[in-house]
Write a structure and sequence with these properties.
Strand content of chain A: 5-15%
Shape of chain B: globular
CATH topology of the largest domain in chain A: Ubiquitin-like (UB roll)
CATH topology of the largest domain in chain B: Aldehyde Oxidoreductase, domain 4
Number of domains of chain A: 2
Bound molecules: FE2/S2 (inorganic) cluster
Number of domains of chain B: 3
Oligomer: heterodimer
Structural class of chain B: alpha+beta
Helix content of chain A: 25-40%
Largest interface: A-B, 61 and 67 residues
Chain lengths: ~150, ~750
């Protein structure tokens, strides 16, 4: 059955079985490849997107269960117009291989939307589900603090 | 060469860079320079690193970008001498070609302990390294990329600049020495400015000349931290990794191969065939591929297939495997890589046995390759560390000549040594052969990736030592492990390479310690569990064995562990002593320890770079927390300090993740670990604060991708000993300690 999803503000018709995870709808059907597959079992966070502003693991949300508007990494900013949190990532030169970073950024963006001045403990709690095999955590932490400051000034 | 030229041309077209009508500049200086892969047989200027056309400037950085920032640093080498800024250029991986052989990788193979190399030995190593071009070693590994490129790529930039100046001189009818260059333009005394892009075609017709490289004091780009050229793309989800390649009409596939790493007697795919989205099930002989309209549908169907696998050729469980490793000690040593004094003449006062498990690489991006087979050509989009290996082995697998194969090297979501293999590319090529003219992306599930790795070898070390008057006077170390070098060379070159493998004892035999009686023997275990190169290779366990035992000796001598090391290292290698002194000062080592806090130091010299780390752990009551890490390293020349610090942190975190969590075990011939819940790493909450200092006392430039890993496990183990008075002698540590 074809379904319509709202992704980054645009309606997309999707003709895939209802049990296909949102991750694979985005990547393989809609070619929105910024969202990444890392584990498929909610253990790495590489697939993190927002549904109605809430950070979710898109590998765990079946197409038939998508309950609201989806925002992916492509939807929060572009190379020519980066979001504040993305600019902080660039300023701190966070990425190494970069594969986990879409998920990290989406998780951080959701945290910052709820908490304008996260403490180190808040960051530990919010970000602990996002694995980075390259070990970029110290710079992710710095970038989140920095983005929080910039968002408050704005 | 025209066919290679064609391949190169298509490579660039894929990268949206048209070379037609552009020019590429030559790099000649080396005797018998391999042919430039960037142009067909036009006979005009040859060039391997710099392409300029009307649309812009492209630099070829022929080493795999796995996250180590190598593309930015290599491009900066060219840019510094060419007088362009990093935001003016496009950086690409380039095609597989002999011109990009890795001289430093093979140069490292000469059997002289590196820190002891005299200048002439260093030169000899460079010379031996030339053989890499005959062996087609265009490989990223061994922390050799910057070392290999340091002179080559600066000279390529300088030569291209010289040619552009001469072309401008001709056009303006002025003397070449009246011209200067800046930001991609040639500027005349009267202010006339000509962009490089206008001069490229003329310049390419000119001969290359010998050039003098700029003095370090004149560097504008090198030596200062640069924004990485891939950073914006990686922060916006727009970087194209292997799994992100999307081609018209492409199919998505996955594979299921024997988890016992052996053959297949049969399979039943009747259920899978009926599943939604499934287009084709391919019998690969030793496994099965499922081709579908969506990767997840392919993976679901693959899970529905039942298999009759052949048994493993190696002992089926971990205990039996370790028994084989242990047995190796009964045979003849494979090497005695160090033998100073006479260890037998000094009675051993302390002895210890250490053990480490097999480890997976667990790159964030699982193994993948996209392939298109047309019958007469094969095109591959592959995140790999060895494009010539990929080209040649894929050609062989589908019955084509290497010249009929095009390899596009994509960005990679981590490598850590795993992508120096080519198995994942060959599987994609074999799948593509079964569906001519249709591009197919083959992506492994995380489970397939974890269970079909070439693992860091498990290893056992037996050490004995004696201290006298507060100093080590004897250290004897025997290490037994399967040989990843022998296995990898057999896979890479198709023939076995016997002989001594010093990688078995890396991190143990090559340490800059003045111990009068110091012997290290390696024992090769006859065990064919698939093993391969894992970040820092032998030093990943050798560093743990050696430095932990040094710590034991320090405590036996009743000495401060850091001063004990310093006393032994100072007379042997001054730059190594300096990194120890640096972490002593950074960590405030001599300050009294608060209760509930442990502090450990470790030192390891690997890939030409000495690294010292101090780790502080605290007992929180709920478990042990790694609070702080201080790192000092010395890569000789710090080309990009920020990137070096990032590599040191990443290398340390990778080592700590393995030390605490990492272990691959076997039951019934199959790996017991499937996914990150069984094979975790450090995360935000468990990651310590890390401070890094980069020193520049060493004589030669050296790499930074791997040397941060070896000291991590022993620094943590030594800190745990300081806290608990229990000596960790086997990994992973979660078995004996609880962490938060
Ligand atoms: S892919 Fe969804 S959490 Fe790992
Ligand atoms: S940057 Fe490589 S996994 Fe996070």
């Amino acid at each position: 059955m074809a379904r319509t999803l709202t992704i980054n503000g645009t309606a997309h018709a999707v003709d895939l079985p209802d049990n296909v995870p949102l991750l694979w709808v985005l990547r393989d059907a809609l070619h929105l490849t910024g969202t990444k597959y890392g584990c498929g079992v909610a253990a790495c966070g590489a697939c993190t997107v927002h549904i109605d502003g809430e950070a979710v693991r898109s590998c765990q949300v079946a197409l038939g269960d998508v309950w609201g508007a989806v925002t992916t990494i492509e939807g929060i900013g572009t190379p020519d117009a980066v979001a504040v949190v993305q600019q902080a990532w660039i300023d701190h030169q966070v990425a190494q291989c970069g594969y986990c970073q879409s998920g990290q950024i989406m998780q951080a963006a959701a945290l910052l939307a709820q908490n304008v001045a996260p403490t180190d403990d808040d960051i530990d709690e919010a970000m602990n589900g996002n694995l980075c095999r390259c070990g970029t955590y110290p710079r992710i932490r710095a970038a989140i603090h920095d983005a929080a400051k910039k968002l408050q000034e704005a | 060469m025209s066919r290679i030229g064609k391949i190169a041309r298509r490579t660039f077209l894929f990268g949206a860079i048209a070379v037609t009508g552009g020019a590429a500049f030559g790099y000649y200086k080396m005797v018998e320079t391999p042919p430039n892969p960037l142009l067909p047989d036009t006979g005009a200027a040859l060039n391997a690193y710099v392409i300029i056309d009307t649309s812009g400037i492209t630099i070829v950085a022929p080493r795999a970008e796995m996250g180590q920032g190598v593309q930015t640093t290599l491009a900066a080498l060219v840019a510094e001498e060419l007088d362009v800024t990093l935001d003016q250029i496009t950086v690409i991986h380039g095609p597989p070609a002999k011109a990009y052989f890795n001289q430093a990788l093979l140069g490292n193979a000469i059997p002289v302990i590196e820190y002891q190399r005299k200048p002439w030995v260093h030169d000899a190593a460079e010379f031996v390294g030339n053989a890499a071009k005959f062996l087609n070693l265009q490989v990223t590994g061994g922390s050799t990329s910057t070392r290999d490129a340091y002179v080559k790529m600066r000279e390529a930039g300088a030569q291209a600049r010289q040619m552009l100046i001469e072309a401008a001189a001709k056009r303006l009818n002025v003397a070449a020495n009246s011209l200067r260059t800046e930001a991609g333009t040639v500027i005349a005394a009267d202010g006339t400015t000509i962009p490089y892009t206008d001069l490229a075609t003329d310049a390419a017709a000119l001969p290359a000349r010998n050039v003098t490289l700029r003095d370090r004091s004149d560097w504008k780009i090198l030596g200062t931290s640069q924004p990485r050229t891939d950073m914006v793309a990686k922060s916006t989800g727009t970087a194209t990794y292997g799994v992100d390649v999307r081609l018209p009409d492409m199919r998505f596939a996955t594979v299921k191969m024997n988890p016992k790493r052996s053959g297949m007697r049969g399979f039943d795919a009747s259920e899978a065939l009926l599943m939604e989205g499934v287009e084709k099930i391919i019998d690969l002989g030793d496994g099965v591929a499922v081709v579908a309209t969506n990767t997840w549908l392919a993976m679901q169907a693959a899970d529905a297939i039942t298999f009759d696998w052949e048994d493993a050729t190696y002992p089926a469980d971990t205990e039996a495997q370790f028994a084989i490793i242990e047995q190796a000690f009964n045979g003849e040593p494979n090497s005695t890589a160090r033998d100073e004094g006479d260890v037998e003449s000094v009675p051993a006062a302390i002895t210890a046995e250490y053990r480490v498990p097999f480890l997976a690489h667990a790159t964030m991006e699982p193994m993948t390759t996209t392939a298109l087979f047309t019958g007469s050509a094969l095109e591959l989009w592959s995140p790999n560390q060895g494009p010539i290996l990929v080209r040649d082995w894929c050609a062989k697998a589908v019955g084509l000549e290497p010249e009929q194969v095009t390899v596009h090297t994509t960005l990679m979501g981590g490598g850590f040594g795993r992508r120096g293999e080519y198995d994942f590319a060959v599987l994609a090529a074999r799948v593509a052969r079964e569906m001519p003219d249709t591009p197919v992306q083959v992506t492994w599930s995380r489970e397939e990736d974890m269970r079909h790795d070439f693992y860091r070898p498990a290893a056992i070390a037996r050490l004995s030592g004696t201290v006298q008057d507060g100093k080590a006077v004897m250290l004897s170390a025997d290490v037994a492990a399967p040989s990843c070098s022998h296995q990898a060379m057999e896979r890479w070159l198709g023939r076995s390479m016997g002989g001594p493998d010093t990688e078995l004892v890396a991190g143990v035999y090559d340490q800059p310690y003045a111990i009068p009686n110091y012997r290290v023997r390696g024992y090769k275990a006859d065990l064919d569990v698939p093993v391969g190169f894992w970040r820092s290779v032998g030093a990943s366990y050798g560093g743990f064995f050696f430095d932990s035992f040094i710590d034991e000796m320090a405590h036996a001598a009743g000495r401060d562990p850091l001063e004990f090391r310093l006393d032994l290292i100072t007379p042997e290698h001054a730059p190594s002593a300096k990194v120890l002194e640096a972490v002593r000062d950074m960590s405030n080592w001599n300050s009294p320890l608060p209760s509930g806090v442990g502090r450990g130091v470790a030192f390891s010299y690997s890939f030409g770079t000495p690294v010292a780390q101090v780790i502080e752990v605290r007992d929180t009551g709920r478990g042990i927390k790694i609070e702080n890490v201080w790192i000092a390293c010395d890569p000789g020349v710090a080309l990009d300090p920020h990137n070096i610090r990032a590599q040191m942190m990443g290398g340390c975190i990778y080592g700590l993740s393995a030390a605490i969590h990492g272990e691959i075990t076997h039951t019934d011939g199959e790996v017991d670990q499937f996914n990150f819940p069984d094979y975790d790493g450090l995360r935000m909450a468990s990651c310590p604060k890390i401070e890094v200092n980069v020193l520049e006392n060493a004589l030669h430039i050296s790499g930074v991708g791997e040397p941060g890993t070896p000291p991590a496990a022993p620094a943590l183990a030594n800190a745990l000993f300081s806290l608990t008075k229990q000596r960790p002698r086997s990994l992973p540590l979660w078995r004996d300690y609880s962490f938060v």
